[in-house]
Amino acid sequence: MNAIVEHEVVDYLKNRLHYDPWDCGTILECMRSLARMAGHGLDNRFRHAGLGAGPEARVAAGIVDLAMMGGGCETTQYTIRKHITDWLLHNPRKGML
To answer: Residue 46's CB: how many other CB atoms inside 10 A?
Structure first.
């Protein structure tokens, strides 16, 4: 777990994707669990995990890559927003970060 990366992801979710700050905790918790399943923490190594970590973890890795000003990812904005919407619908709210 890297606090700088997590802060950058939360800033990206709030400022670029325009999600409610109260939803960012839930999104970040889902991303943490996907990173743990892939054998990583939510850090710079996870942003390069790609499809080897699974299709849902690829979306989370793409969000981390975009938040860290990486070169981008092969995941479209539509897919990213669809997965985030699913995470918000299927998981309880964690609160504001």
So the answer is: 25
